[in-house]
Structure formats: structure tokens, C-alpha cells
Please model this.
Amino acid sequence: MGNAVKLIAWLVLPIAGLVALGALAIWLFQALMGVLVYLLVGIAVAAGGAYLYQKAKRAVGPGTRTRMRLDAAAETYRQRNP
Model:
């Protein structure tokens, strides 16, 4: 009877250990993937914001049509409202 219990213990414990280790590995992998997704979304948002900032800055930069219109409007306003 004692040998049968030892045999079952030697067969079941490694399998249970592998199942527990696999569950831990899956949980850790999912946690890392979640962090990676949040990191990628954050990078994309920051890059998009920088792109839009540069685009807006270039659109209103010196010598552009928009800048000349704004300067002309400001000059007209100053002339009419001293």
C-alpha cells in the first residue's frame, strides 16, 4: 500500500507542478502583453500629438499664407481700433 501511494505521488506531483507553472507563465505573459499594449498606445498618442503640433507650427510659420493673413488682420485691427 505504501509503494502505491509513493508511485502516485511521484506521478501526480510533477504533473501538478507543470500545470501550476504553466498557469503562472500564461498569467505573466498576459500581464506583460497588457503592459506592452498600453505602452504602444501611449507612444502612438505622443507621436500623433507631436506630429499635429509640428504640422500646426509649420502652417502658421513665417512666410506662410496663414501667417500673412493673421498679420494683415492684426494690422487692420490696430488701425481701426487705436
User: Anything to note?
Assistant: The longest helix spans residues 2-59.
